[in-house]
Amino acid sequence: MRVITQFSIGGPEVLQVAEAERPVPAAGEVLVRVYATGVNPADCKVRSGHVDFFGDPPLVLGHEFSGVVHEVGEAVRAFQPGDEVFGWVTPPHGSHADYVLVPETSLAAKPTTLDHVHAGALGIAGLTAYQTLVNIAQVRRGQRVLIHAAAGGVGHLAVQIAKARGAYVIGTARSAKHAFLRELGVDELIDYTTDDFTRLREVDVVIDTISNDYGPRSLRTLDRGGILVDVVGVGVDRTSVRQQAQAAGVRFVEYFLQPNPADLAGFADLLDRSGVRPFVERTLPLTEAAQAHELSESGRVQGKIVLIP
Fold first, then answer.
1. Are 277 and 114 spatial neighbours (Cβ–Cβ below 8 Å)?
2. Alpha-carbon gap, residue 203 to 170, rounded angstroms
3. 35 closest CA partner among 5, 65, 70
4. Topology of domain 2-123+259-308, per CATH?
5. Which band of pLDDT confidence, cut at 50, 70 and 90, is reported for residue 288?
6. Residue ranges of domains in the chain
7. Which of 23, 50, 155, 295 is most buried, by the most CB atoms less than 10 A from its CB?
8. Fold (topology level) of 125-254
9. Model confidence band, residue 261 (pLDDT cutoffs 50, 70, 90)
10. What's the confidence (pLDDT) of residue 67?
């Protein structure tokens, strides 16, 4: 099978198409034929060495995918060959490949209302938005939710989930992306290049997809008892924002993705019931992974980029 791999740490140019043996699933594992695989900032961080807990190269990149079950290992009961699935995986056995080997617990049935291209864009970005808003913040009708980088991969899905739960949604984004966000239902838009979002008050929930100084600045917008959720992951020192949150009487949560079949299935059900949809700005062949990384790192992508094996 073909895989996208790297033999050294570096820029997008280190990515290569290589041949590998198709793996055989062990007990509790599922081999999926990949039909689509999303590109995320996390993939770029692995490639560039900003995230190093997957070990040294060579690595097969890619965290999220949609496809069809090809083979199952012993003790797998929830899936059988031919099932359409989506899910999440970590390198070194990444999803930027023709086939991906996945623990059964990191899979769910593909949403019936989505094709593989759109389902392949959900494993990280969608589950992140779902877990932060539904499980952690428990957003409810009438609350005010501020979402940073609202047009991005996590942001545009968080907007839709928050709206589906009845929230008043405020989004930060460049003005060029405002029309797109209005179509998604954002109630109030702030161009962070010309307007200071810290003027906001009485916000109940902040979803921070940027981190660094955005955390301390976002605390000023929160009502007492509100919550700030940082979804950026490893590599950011949150000591200051944690201390400031405690002093201000608000909650601060440093979120890390925890894939589990119940949340994947719950998210798929929400998608089928509510009309929440990922926006795929660009699809590229698997062999153009380097170009996909360049686009992802440009910071100008609305929604998601998806690779097609």
1. yes
2. 9
3. 65
4. Quinone Oxidoreductase; Chain A, domain 1 (3.90.180)
5. very high
6. 2-123+259-308, 125-254
7. 155
8. Rossmann fold (3.40.50)
9. confident
10. 98
pLDDT in tens, 15-33: 999 999 999 999 999 999 9
Domains 2-123+259-308 and 125-254 share a fold: no
Mean pLDDT of all residues in 175-183:
95
User: Which tens digits make up the pLDDT trace of 73-122?
Assistant: 999 999 999 999 999 898 778 999 999 999 999 999 999 999 999 999 99
Give me the pLDDT at residue 257, please: 86
Query: Residue 146 in contact with residue 206, Cβ under 8 Å?
Result: yes
